[in-house]
Amino acid sequence: QVQLVESGGGLVQAGGSLRLSCAASGRPFRSSDMGWFRQTPGKERESVAAINWSGDFTYYADSVKGRFTISRDNAKNTVYLQMNSLKPEDTAVYYCAAETARSLTPGQALGVSSIDYWGQGTQVTVSS
Question: Distance (Å, rounded) from C-alpha 9 to C-alpha 121?
């Protein structure tokens, strides 16, 4: 069992930065691929970034490449999403996610259907 708690969301002006954190409890964290997803009203949840269990490789959606960075600290059971050069279209609820099957491969996103555990979500609002 893994419990995920996000923090770090908020309101920021366009061009600003935020750092999301996801604290995990439960032993499977260190052997789980981790990801960040986001969702806006009326739209499907989409994968933003992912990192494999050992931190060897990552995935980014084209819309955030070069602006967002995912990282993890297995000693602290925490995964981060550094978001720079934020745009109004980045406004969404951001969810932390864990996938225990370790199916993430380089260049591929984590699928919503493959996720075993979700956080409660944190709101990110970027004003223009």
Answer: 9
Q: Give the burial class of 16: count Cβ atoms within 10 A of its Cβ; 0-12 exposed, 13-18 middle, 19 or more buried.
A: middle
Q: Which of 37, 40, 35, 38 is nearest to 50 (CA)?
A: 35
* Dihedral class, residue 44 (left if φ above 0, else alpha if ψ from -120 to 50, else beta): beta
Report how many helices (DSSP H) and strands (DSSP E) the chain contains, helices first.
0, 11
Q: Is the pLDDT of residue 59 over 90?
A: yes
Q: Indicate the helix (H) or strand (E) that contains 126.
A: strand 122-127
Structure tokens at 34: 């981790």
Q: Is the pLDDT of residue 27 over 80?
A: no
